[in-house]
Structure formats: structure tokens, C-alpha cells
């Protein structure tokens, strides 16, 4: 009898909550929708932090800017992922202090050293910042992204390398929901309507460029899963996801994402056919030499291209190199030039981490402005990870970021021949190619302040570092997930 009353009470409360939430959603208020997430996060935090971690990865592509849920706020963050990030980071710090735990083997890894240098310089650059509050928030966002998506991921991958697959599948599953939603929304207005593609991914992504970057980032991994899986069902699902994400990428109309994936695929061919680094260096040197030799003619031909972006895919591809009439390309040049002007004035410390979007307006030159420029400088960032860092935190910040990429990619490529497990070797190559798509994409856009891109960027680096530690011949991981250091000869004997 008591159980019936309890069940009846729970059902009534649930129905009342659903009715109230439905009413507020009709009134375009999403506040009550937050309550179930709060209870779920609290439950997993207390009883299963590992599930909360993978749920965070799943939710990364599905998170929504808080201002879309609660309009009129003076602040904004990605919900529910950033609160979960802060909670997990706090738990990680407390547990690490209580258990006196730190992944000490990381102290000598070049990627981790580069990350510490990068974060350390950002802290220094906060001191002379024009907008200290903005810079502090910028640093904190980077800190909890790196703390969870890199450091905690690394710990999880070292304890059980199967967690690598769980991490990748969690993100892929969330991204699949976003891609389905975006394509359906886009189809309602016509898939060949390239203007509709710009906001089809809202409210999950700010615009089609970050959405395209995430798709280009994840496609190499779905293909690796397709090649690696022994299960026919998983293989079929992985190939389906790969094809579906490719279709979604095409209809994202993100030209930068298209080119970045082609760039990544080109590097994959070099890795697959084991082209020597010396041959690559000679070829790149020849291309650079030809560019300088024929720079005037190349510039003249680029200026003759007046094909603007459109729903016609051939014209959209041609518009990639249109620097005469395409407003998007010209505005990107305007932002780059403003970033360089800011850097030239403050080359060491910059204007403050995260401040570009608030300060670039006076650095715009009248002849660079386009129909989409604004005198108030309220339309976003520098459209370049590299130039954005240079303008905001000086040359050393950009150098730290480049070192992270170079060390991760170098150690990853060297490691390919050492990973004996074919499945994880494929994952390693996929993460390298995924990172390379963003290395290229970073010249044209900057999205590392968004959880959707940060989860993949730092997660892929964590995969590379964890596999490097496992197969480098310096440590061994026992069946309990404990990391032990061994001399190289002793470790080989263990294997």
C-alpha cells in the first residue's frame, strides 16, 4: 500500500512538472528544463563521476548558449557542459589533493610542457590586459577545457584504453543528433539555399563554420572505426556515420571545412604511402619558391575571380579564392589586417587574452571594410587562431599554441609504427588527421573557446599523448590501470 502511494505521488509530481514545463516552453522560457539536468548531474557526481564525464562529451555538440534559454542575461556560457566542466574540475582538484595524485609521467612530455608554457603565458598576459575581467574569464575557460578534455581524458585513457573508444563514440553520437537536426531544418528551406545553411545548426552551433569544423574534425574518426571494427554491425554503423557526416559537411556550405578535410586527406595519403619527410620538405619548398616567383601573376588571377558564394557547389568552390567581391573573404582579410595592426602595436603581451572582439574596431582600415563590417567591432573574432593569439597575448602565446600542435603531431606520427594494436593505430592516425584539419582551419577561423571544438581538439591530443606513453617504451600500465616506470630494456622484457 505504501509503495502504491509513493508511486502515485511520484507520477502526480512528474505530470505536474511536465505540464508546468510545457507551459513555460510555450512561453519561450526554458528555465524549468534545467531542473532534470541538475538532478542527473548531482546523482552521477555522487555515484558515478565516470558516467558524468562521458555524458559531458556526449553533450558537448548538443550544448546551447545560456542566453537562448534565459534571454536578457549579462553573461553567457554553454549549458549544460560548462557547469559540468567546472564541477568535474573541482572534483578532480579535490580528489588529487586528497589522494596526493598527479600523473607525474606527464612532467617530461613535450606536449604537456608546451601546454604549461601556453597557460603560463596567458596568465602573464592578463596583467597588462585592457579588459582584465574578460581576460580572466578567457583563461578560466581554457583552463577547464584543458583540465578536463586533456588531463582528465588522459587519466581515463591510461587507466583503460577502451575509454578512448567510449570518448569518441560519445561525441559522435551527440554530433549525429546535431547533424540530423541541422539537415532537417535546412531541408525545410531548401538544401541548395546556402544562406539557410548559416543558421541551420542553431541553437547548437553559433554558425555553419564551427559546425563544419566539427564535422571535418570527426569524419576521420568515424572512418577509422569503420576500418577497425570486427563487428559487422558496428562497421555498418561507422560507415553510415561517415557517409552521413560527409553529406552534412557538404550541405554545411563551410568552405574552410571542405578545404581542411581535403588537406587532412592529403596528409593521410603521405602517411599511408610512407613518403619521406625529406621529399615532403623539398616539395613544399618548391611550391613556396614558385609562389614567390609568380606572386604577381597569382595575385592578378585571384583578383580577376568575381565568383561569389552561392548554392551552386561549383561556384561556391570557386568563391574560395575570390578576394575581390566575396564579402566573407574580404571581411576575413579585414579582421586579419586589424589583428596584425594590434600585434604590431603590442607584440609581446598583446591587448589581453579574449579582448580582440572588443578592441579591433579602431584598427580597421577604411579601404579594408566590407558591407558586413561594423564601426563598433561587434561581429566576432579574428578568424584565425594564430593571429587572434598574437593580437591578444603576443607572439609567445601563439608560439606556445604552435608548439602544442607540433609536439603532438610529431610524437603521433613517430608513434604510428610503434603501436602494435591495429585498431588503436587507426585511432591514432585518425586523431592526427583530425588535428591537421584544425591546424589548417585555424588559419581561417578560431573556435577553441567553444566546448564543441575544444572537446575534440584537446581530446585528440590526450589520445596521442596516452598512446605515446603506452607505446613509447618509458612506462607500462598494469591490469589495474596503474602507471609504472621501467627502464627501456626491462619494459621490453615485460612485453
Verbal overview:
The chain is mainly α. The protein has two domains: 101 residues, no CATH class; 359 residues, no CATH class. 69% of the residues lie in helices and 2% in strands. The strands form two sheets. It has a two-stranded antiparallel sheet with strand order 1-2. Strand 3 and strand 4 form a beta hairpin. Helix 6 packs antiparallel against helix 7. The C terminus is likely disordered.
Question: Any chance you could write out the topology, listing elements then pairs?
Answer:
Layout: H1 2-26, H2 34-47, H3 49-59, E1 64-65, H4 66-69, E2 78-79, H5 81-99, H6 110-126, H7 132-159, H8 162-187, H9 194-200, H10 208-228, H11 232-250, H12 255-272, H13 277-293, H14 295-304, H15 313-318, H16 327-345, H17 356-359, H18 385-415, H19 422-441, H20 451-471, E3 475-477, E4 483-485, H21 488-494
Antiparallel strand pairs: 1-2, 3-4
Helix pairs in contact: 2-3, 3-5, 3-8, 5-7, 6-7, 6-18, 7-8, 7-20, 8-9, 8-11, 10-11, 10-12, 10-19, 10-20, 12-19, 16-18, 18-19, 18-20, 19-20
Q: What keywords describe this structure?
A:
single chain, 495 residues, 2 domains, two-stranded antiparallel sheet, two-stranded antiparallel ribbon, disordered C terminus
